[in-house]
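Consider a typical record:
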Amino acid sequence: MNPAAAALTTAWPASAARERAFCQALLADMLRIRRLEEKSAELYGAGQIRGFLHLYVGEEAVAVGAMHALAPEDNIVATYREHGHALVRGVPMNAIMAEMFGKLAGCSHGRGGSMHLFDRATRFYGGNAIVGGGIALAAGLALGDKLLRRAGVTVCFFGEGAMAEGVFHETANLAALWQLPLLFICENNFYAMGTALARSESQTDLCAKAASYNIATNRANGMDVLAVHAAVAAAAAHVRSGAGPYFLECQTYRFRAHSMFDPDLYRDPAEVAAWKEHGPLHAFTARLKAEHKLTEEEFLALDASAQREVDAAVAFAEAAAWEPVEDLAKDLLGTEAGA
C-alpha cells in the first residue's frame, strides 16, 4: 500500500461512518440492489428481460460504499455489471427496469438494455459492454473537467480483467502524466469471466501495476461497505485536492455466474460457499445487530421497502410503452429521421 494512501484511510473519521442512520442507509441500498438483481434474474428466466444480463449479487458493498462517498458533481463511468451503481447513484429504479425491458421509458429509451444504463442528470455516463471500454472515456471526462477548471472527480469502475487490456495501461500513463482528476476503482472479483486472475495475469498485485505509473494506490475489503466507504472517501479527497489520479482495488466476489449464459463450471462450489459466509449483506446486518444499531424489525422493514420498490418498478416497466416503429431510425447518423 502507498504510505500516503494509508495515511488518508487512517485519517477518515470512523465515528461518522458508524452513525446509526448512516449505516442503516447503507444497508437499505444494498438490499435495494440485491432485490433488484434477484428479480431481474427471475424476469430473465421468464423472457421479459432479453439480451445479456450480468448480476451484481455479492458485490453490493462496493457500489454502495463508493456512491455514498462521492459528490453530485462527480462523474461516474461503470461496466456492464452496473445496475447497482446506477441505482445508488440516483437513477430511478423504474427507469432502470424499463430499460432492461427495452421500453421507451427506460433511462436509455430502451435502446441500451442492461449493459448500457445512462443518466445525464446524475452524471452516470454508462454502462459499457466492452471490457475496459469505459476507462478511456473516463479519462476524457476528467481531462475536460481539468481544462474547464470544473470541480469534480471522475470515477471509473472496472473489473480486474480490464487491467489486462491495453487501454488501462495507456489511460493510467496519461492520467499520471497529465495529473487528471481520475479515480480508478477496480472491482476485483478474481474471475475475468471464467478465468481466474492467476491464470491470465502474471502480476496479480493490481496495486503494483497501477503504482508503476506513479499513481497513488490502496486496497480495500470489498465485502465490507464501511471499509469501501472510507477508502473511496480518502481516495476522492486525494484526487479532489489536485494531487493527481488514484487507484483503489476493492477485493470482492460475485455469488452468481458471470452472466445468465454462463454455466459457472470453473469455480469450486465450496469456494463460492466460503465467500458467501462473508457476504456483504449477511456480515453487515450481523454487525449492526451486534452493535445495537439495527433490530430485526428494522431489518425486515428495510427489506420490505426494497421489495415494494422492485414490485413497483416491474409494474411500471410492464405498463410502459414500446418505442414506435416509425422512430427506429431516430438518432442514427446519416438518416433523415436523425438529422
In short: The first helix runs from residue 3 to 11.
